[in-house]
UniProtKB/TrEMBL annotation:
<protein>
    <recommendedName>
        <fullName>Protein p34</fullName>
    </recommendedName>
</protein>
<dbReference type="Pfam" id="PF16916">
    <property type="entry name" value="ZT_dimer"/>
</dbReference>
<feature type="transmembrane region" description="Helical">
    <location>
        <begin position="177"/>
        <end position="194"/>
    </location>
</feature>
<feature type="transmembrane region" description="Helical">
    <location>
        <begin position="34"/>
        <end position="55"/>
    </location>
</feature>
<dbReference type="InterPro" id="IPR027469">
    <property type="entry name" value="Cation_efflux_TMD_sf"/>
</dbReference>
<dbReference type="InterPro" id="IPR036837">
    <property type="entry name" value="Cation_efflux_CTD_sf"/>
</dbReference>
<feature type="transmembrane region" description="Helical">
    <location>
        <begin position="153"/>
        <end position="171"/>
    </location>
</feature>
<dbReference type="InterPro" id="IPR002524">
    <property type="entry name" value="Cation_efflux"/>
</dbReference>
<feature type="transmembrane region" description="Helical">
    <location>
        <begin position="75"/>
        <end position="97"/>
    </location>
</feature>
<keyword id="KW-0472">Membrane</keyword>
<dbReference type="GO" id="GO:0005886">
    <property type="term" value="C:plasma membrane"/>
</dbReference>
<keyword id="KW-0812">Transmembrane</keyword>
<dbReference type="GO" id="GO:0015341">
    <property type="term" value="F:zinc efflux antiporter activity"/>
</dbReference>
<feature type="transmembrane region" description="Helical">
    <location>
        <begin position="7"/>
        <end position="28"/>
    </location>
</feature>
<comment type="similarity">
    <text>Belongs to the cation diffusion facilitator (CDF) transporter (TC 2.A.4) family.</text>
</comment>
<dbReference type="GO" id="GO:0015093">
    <property type="term" value="F:ferrous iron transmembrane transporter activity"/>
</dbReference>
<dbReference type="InterPro" id="IPR027470">
    <property type="entry name" value="Cation_efflux_CTD"/>
</dbReference>
Length: 295
């Protein structure tokens, strides 16, 4: 089991612990706002499990049926997580509407809020760890899980403040209103996650600054070639696919052109971890006089 898979499995156990604490808080108070917070934690557990399965599958090496690897499995998990977040938002809206029609008195608000606060603190620490790990290991599943947990942290802060205000003032209508706000936040989070994951499944290019860096590396390390054109890049979880055409003098030997390609590939792999590179060598009559100028 690789490091990403171990972290994803840890999210499952953390999510179960937080889920238990938040439902205890809901049971103590009867607050529909705390119920909404607990419902989001159910999604956290399910999505963490999906991320674990995806990370395990994505780490499998390429095979005959998947010659480019299994990296996109993480995007599928992230899409699933986004859909589950949307479903959780619908369930929260329903409970908020029922509580709005029939306001409920809050029992033991102080103890319940304290328990929910402990759960929120655990989520905050783990969310930061997931986001950092997602960037370090270039794992969309870990990053998505961490960002989702971070929205859960802010939701918990709002819920705790709102429920405390409702208990202090006696304005019971604040409880379902706050749950509705939480549901909107959850819905927005789910939409953003689905949109980002679909971009990965559709072979979206890396960020502009990464593409510019790739062009700069090719320009500086292609000494002996004439130009490079038709550069294409795409992301697939921890891998960055790079392919382009390299124009060399017609009189250059295969060995010399291969040496240039090796030099470029070595530099790209050092500067863009996880890159998979394909270079098509062409004679000078194929030059387009545009694209990447060799320094």
């Amino acid at each position: 089991m690789n490091r990403v898979s171990k972290i994803a499995l840890g999210s499952v156990f953390v999510g179960i612990a937080v889920l238990a604490l938040k439902f205890v808080a809901y049971w103590l108070t009867g607050s529909v706002a705390l119920y909404s917070d607990a419902m989001e934690s159910i999604v956290n557990v399910a999505s963490a499990f999906a991320a674990f399965i995806a990370a395990r599958y994505a780490s499998k090496p390429a095979d005959q049926n998947h010659p480019y690897g299994h990296h996109k499995a993480e995007y599928l998990a992230a899409v699933l997580e986004g859909v589950m977040i949307v479903l959780a938002a619908v369930a929260i809206f329903y409970q908020a509407w029922e509580a709005f029609r029939t306001p409920r008195f809050l029992d033991q608000p102080t103890l319940g809020l304290a328990v929910n606060g402990v759960a929120g603190l655990i989520n905050l620490v783990w969310a930061r760890y997931l986001i950092v790990s997602g960037k370090r290991f270039r794992s969309p599943a870990l990053d998505a899980d961490g960002r989702h947990l971070m929205t859960d942290v802010w939701s918990s802060v709002g819920v705790i403040g709102g429920v405390a205000l409702a208990a202090w003032t006696g304005w019971l209508i604040l409880d379902p209103l706050l749950a509705g706000v939480v549901a909107l936040n959850v819905l927005w989070s789910g939409w953003g996650l689905v949109r980002q994951s679909v971009g990965g499944l559709m072979d979206e290019a890396p960020e502009p600054h990464i593409r510019d860096h790739i062009r700069s590396i090719i320009s500086q390390r292609a000494e002996g070639a004439l130009e490079a054109h038709d550069l294409r890049t795409r992301r697939a979880a921890q891998k960055t696919f790079i392919d382009f055409h390299l124009v060399v003098p017609g009189s250059m030997t295969v060995a010399d052109s291969h040496e240039i390609c090796d030099r470029i590939e070595e530099a790209l792999r050092a500067e863009v971890p996880g890159s998979i590179i394909t270079i098509h060598v062409e004679p000078e009559e194929k030059a387009k006089h545009q694209g990447i100028v060799v320094v």
